[in-house]
Design goal:
Strand content: 15-25%
CATH architecture: Alpha-Beta Barrel
Number of domains: 1
CATH superfamily: Aldolase class I
Distance between the termini: 37 Å
Number of strands: 12
CATH class: Alpha Beta
Largest sheet: 10 strands, parallel
Shape: globular
Structural class: alpha/beta
Low-confidence stretches: 324-341
Bound molecules: S-adenosylmethionine, 6-(5-methyl-2-OXO-imidazolidin-4-yl)-hexanoic acid, iron/sulfur cluster
Order of helices and strands: HHEHEHEHEHHEEHEHHEHEHEEE
CATH topology: TIM Barrel
C-alpha cells in the first residue's frame, strides 16, 4: 500500500526527480494503481464565465490588463447562458464543469449570481468547480453552502519562482485562500504551470509545497505553459525557443506529483495541444488521470473532443464514470457528499 504522507522533504522529492526515467515511471504507475484504475481518465470541461480585464499581473496570463494579448474583457455571464453550456458539456460526456473568472477576487455583489450558477450546474448532476481568485473565509463558506464541489486556486510554482512571475499578490495569500477553501469543506484543486523558465529545483519546491499541505489537494492540475503572444512569459518563450519545457521533464513532474500525492486526481491541464500523443501516453502511465475536454480552455485552444476520442481509442482509455466526490467535513473526516436536494 502506498502511504499518504505529508512529511515529504525537498531532498526526497529531488531524489525522485533524479531516478532513472523507467524506474520513476514504474514507481509512479505502482502508486497510481493503488488508488486509481489505470485505464480511466476523468473528463472535465472548462468555461470562462468572466473573461479578461483582470488587474493581476500573472506573467503567463492572457487575461491580465498588463498583457497585450487582444483578449477582450467581458462581464460575468448570464446564469442561463452558463447553464446552457453546462448542459452541452454533460451531453458531451463531461463529469465536471469548471468555471473560471478573471478576477483578483470575487466582489460580494457577484456572489448571489455565483451561488445560483453553482446550484444550477449541480442540479444537472455535474460536479462543480470554480476558480474565481482569492476568497475570504465567508465567501468560501457561501460557496460550500451552495454545494460547490471543488475550488481551483493554483500555487503556480515554487515559493521562490512565484515572486518572479506575479507581483500583485504573494504566495502566502495563495496559501491563505487554499486554507479558507479547505476549512469550508470544499475539495481543494491546486497545481501549477511547468515550463515558465523555472528550474528543476523550482519544480521540486512546487511539488513539495503541495505534498506537504496539511492535506493533499484532491485535484492537482499540471499545466504546461501555453505561450500567449503579448504576455511576458509568452513573449520571452518566443524569443528563446530553448526555454520550452523538455517532454521527459514534464512527464517526470507528473510522475513525482503522483508518487507524492497518490490519492489525488492529477490533471493534465493546459498545453496538451502542444504535447504529442506519445508524451501524453507517458503522462497517463505516470499517473495523470484527468484532462480538460473540448476545443477551448479559458481563452486558449484545447485539443478538442475528436482528437481526444481518437487518443483514448489508440490508448484503450475510457472516461471515468461519475462517482460521488468525497467532501471533507470541518473536523477533517471524509464523508460521501449528499446529492443536490
Ligand atoms: N483568476 C483566477 C486565478 O488566477 O486564480 C482564476 C483563473 S486563472 C486563468 C487559473 C489558472 O490557469 C492559473 O492559476 C494558471 O495556473 C492557469 N493558467 C493561466 N494562463 C495559463 C497559460 N497561459 N498557460 C498555462 N496555464 C495557465
Ligand atoms: C488550471 O490549472 N488550468 C485551467 C483551470 N485551472 C482553470 C486553466 C488553464 C488556462 C489556460 C490558458 C487560457 O485558456 O487562457
Ligand atoms: Fe487574473 Fe487569474 Fe489571469 Fe492572474 S491568472 S491575471 S488572477 S485571471
Amino acid at each position: 500500500m502506498t502511504d499518504i504522507r505529508m512529511d515529504w522533504t525537498r531532498e526526497e522529492i529531488a531524489a525522485l526527480f533524479d531516478l532513472p526515467f523507467t524506474e520513476l515511471l514504474f514507481q509512479a504507475a505502482t502508486a497510481h494503481r493503488t488508488y486509481h484504475r489505470p485505464d480511466e481518465v476523468q473528463l472535465c470541461t472548462l468555461l470562462s464565465i468572466k473573461t479578461g480585464g483582470c488587474p493581476e499581473d500573472c506573467g503567463y496570463c492572457s487575461q491580465s490588463v498588463h498583457a497585450d494579448s487582444g483578449v477582450e474583457a467581458t462581464k460575468l455571464m448570464d446564469v442561463r447562458a452558463v447553464l446552457q453550456s453546462a448542459a452541452q458539456a454533460k451531453d458531451a460526456g463531461s463529469q465536471r464543469f469548471c468555471m473560471g473568472a478573471a478576477w483578483r477576487n470575487p466582489k460580494d455583489r457577484d456572489m448571489p449570481a455565483i451561488v445560483e450558477i453553482v446550484k444550477g450546474v449541480r442540479d444537472m448532476g455535474l460536479e462543480t468547480c470554480m476558480t474565481l481568485g482569492m476568497l475570504t473565509p465567508k465567501q468560501a463558506d457561501m460557496l460550500a453552502a451552495a454545494g460547490l464541489d471543488y475550488y481551483n486556486h493554483n500555487i503556480d510554482s515554487s515559493p521562490e519562482y512565484y515572486e518572479r512571475v506575479i507581483s500583485t499578490r504573494n504566495f502566502e495569500e495563495r496559501l491563505d485562500t487554499l486554507d479558507h477553501v479547505r476549512k469550508s469543506g470544499i475539495n481543494v484543486c491546486s497545481g501549477g504551470i511547468i515550463g515558465m523558465g523555472e528550474t528543476r529545483e523550482d519544480r521540486v519546491g512546487f511539488v513539495h509545497t503541495l505534498s506537504t499541505l496539511e492535506q493533499h489537494p484532491e485535484s492537482v492540475p499540471v499545466n504546461a505553459l501555453v505561450p500567449v503572444k503579448g504576455t511576458i512569459l509568452g513573449d520571452m518563450l518566443a524569443d528563446t525557443p530553448m526555454a520550452k519545457i523538455d517532454d521527459i521533464e514534464f512527464v517526470r513532474t507528473v510522475a513525482v506529483a503522483r508518487i507524492t500525492m497518490p490519492k489525488s486526481m492529477v490533471r493534465l491541464s493546459a498545453g496538451r495541444e502542444s504535447i504529442s500523443a506519445s508524451t501524453q501516453a507517458l503522462c497517463f502511465m505516470a499517473g495523470a488521470n484527468s484532462i480538460f475536454t473540448g476545443d477551448k480552455l479559458l481563452t486558449a485552444p484545447n485539443a478538442g473532443d475528436d482528437s481526444d476520442a481518437a487518443l483514448f481509442d489508440r490508448l484503450g482509455l475510457k472516461a471515468l464514470e461519475g462517482e460521488e466526490p468525497l467532501r471533507q467535513s470541518r473536523d477533517g473526516a471524509e464523508s460521501t457528499m449528499e446529492t443536490a436536494e
